[in-house]
Structure formats: C-alpha cells, structure tokens
Amino acid sequence: MQFDKFTTKSQEAVQAAQSLAQGKGHQELQPEHLMKVLLEQTDGVVAPILQKMGVDPALLRQEMDALLTKLPQVSGGGYSQVYAGKRFQALLDRAFKVAGEMQDEYVSLEHLILAVLDDKDSSVAQAFKRKGVSREAFLQALVAIRGNQ
C-alpha cells in the first residue's frame, strides 16, 4: 500500500481504524472500522456531505456499530498486530482507482467513501444504501459542497 499517496486526513483515518480494530479485539482491519472512524470525524468532509444529502451520520454510525459486533474477536495475549483484511485491501485498491478516475493524485476521504459505495454487495455499502446514500447522490452532494474541484 502506498501510504504516501493518501491525504493526511486519510492517513489519520486508517490509523484510527487500526486503533479501533485493536481496541475491539479484531485482528483484521475491515471497511467497517474505517467507515465508523470516518463517520465520527468532526472536522472531516464526510459528515457535511451526508448532512447535505439529508442523512444523519449518527444513524450510519449505529449501523457500523452493529456490523462491528458481528466481526470475530480475539482475546488474551495471543495477538498484537492488526492486519488489513482482504475486504479492506480491496477497498483501498478501489479508492486508488476512484482517485485516478477523478484525476486526483492522492486518495482522500471522499475516495474512500466512493470506494465503499462501489462495492454494492458489501454489508457496509448496503448499510449506506438503507440510509439513502448512493454513489450518485454522494457525488452530487460532494460537488454541491466543493464545486468541481
């Protein structure tokens, strides 16, 4: 993973997701961890975009909490390292692809959300969909907030 190709905010989010996974006793870092962290950011772009769409980020955080409880946990001293699971690695790969399609040099928070929304079969994408968040609607709200940057 080319961590230097992430914006500072994206790097911070991945690190916070790792901490969240470790704190919950999850050995594998998954998209659920990252989305929970992104939804909790008070100074990020995700919550304002969702609010622009009429979606309450708190409701999506609850969805992520429910999904996180379904992930396997490890207890005791048998583990110390959290590693990127296959679904998480696929999410990052999609985020790099989205950034390239948008002609952006760095992977930002919105690229990570769009990458989640691109995986229509994932439980995370389904949770967003249940709350009315589609890729198209997210892009429209992003453009409304940021313009065509």
Kindly describe this structure.
This protein has helices spanning 8-23, 31-40, 46-52, 57-69, 86-101, 109-118, 123-130, 135-146; strands at 28-29, 83-84. The protein has 149 residues and is mostly helical. The chain has a two-stranded parallel ribbon. The longest helix is centred in the N-terminal third of the chain and has 16 residues, at 8-23. The mean pLDDT is 90.
Helicity, as a percent range: 55-70%
Number of strands: 2
- Strand order in the sheet with the most strands: 1-2
Number of helices: 8
Give the helix/strand class: mainly alpha
Strand content: under 5%
C-alpha Rg (nearest Å): 15 Å
Summarize model confidence as the mean pLDDT: 90
Low-confidence stretches: none
Largest sheet: 2 strands, parallel
**N-to-C SSE string, H for helix and E for strand:** HEHHHEHHHH
Shape: globular
The end-to-end span amounts to: 25 Å
Which tags fit this structure?
149 residues; mainly alpha; two-stranded parallel ribbon; 8 helices
Spell out the blueprint of helices and strands.
Layout: H1 8-23, E1 28-29, H2 31-40, H3 46-52, H4 57-69, E2 83-84, H5 86-101, H6 109-118, H7 123-130, H8 135-146
Parallel strand pairs: 1-2
Q: What is the compact description of this entry?
A:
This protein is mostly helical and 149 residues long. Helix content is 62%, strand content 3%.
